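Lab channel / #folding
Pinned by the channel admin:
"Please post every new chain as: sequence first, then the structure tokens as a reply. Keep commentary short and put observations after the output so the thread stays searchable."

First post following the new format, from NK:
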Amino acid sequence: MNRIETKTFEIVISNFTDKKIRILELAPGEGYLTQALIDEGYSNVEALDINPQRFEARGVKCHKGNLNEPMPFESDSFDLVISVEGIEHLENQYKFASELNRVLKENAHTIITTPNIINFASRIRFLMTGFYALAARPSSEFEKNWVIEHIYPLTFWQLRHILHTNGLFIRGIETDHIRKSSIVGLLFYPFTYLLTWKSLAKEGDPRQREKNKEIQKQIHTRAIYLGRTQIIFAEKRKNSYIRAT
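Reply from TO:
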């Protein structure tokens, strides 16, 4: 497994002692994480991938599916859905989150990982070039290969908005790796914290202003400020988000 899969695996075994829970891994590739879960004793694991012929985990069904489309599962089916480095490849990330909500049982969980484009080193890259780390150049306009390309990299607050407005509420934030090039950002930490606070405090809606206090703390955690990857652990709960009609 790579570092991201290893960290995701650690989150699973730390939070789910019941080895009979129903788990779904999305876009698992060859299935190294899926295989590790099976080897750990989780007995009810499935996968879904656009290229299931690449999947090699033993004794696990890999369904064929495209994450830009509805998943071929009934509602309220899974206790845990894992998506490692997938959401940044999708055309409609809000619909994807809505599908996650649909297939998860009430109070079930999801783990989503995606490149962290607002660590300090990535912020400096954007300042100098207009492009973020891990999205350092434009996607090709001549070949639509979105399995490989990061067509929609997400800041933390964008990912939070996608999840929270679809009833998936963040319980934990981790990373797989602290970027050495971001550590210099600790020298600027008081200034970025103050400037972010001043910006978020301008919110006119008092309800969102309270939420912005959470966002302020979250984007200044070690994982987001310095980490290479956002690893988000979220829970499905009823939400009160009001959509415009």
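NK: The beta strands are 23-26, 45-49, 62-64, 78-84, 104-115, 168-174, 229-236.
TO: also worth noting, The radius of gyration is 18 Å.
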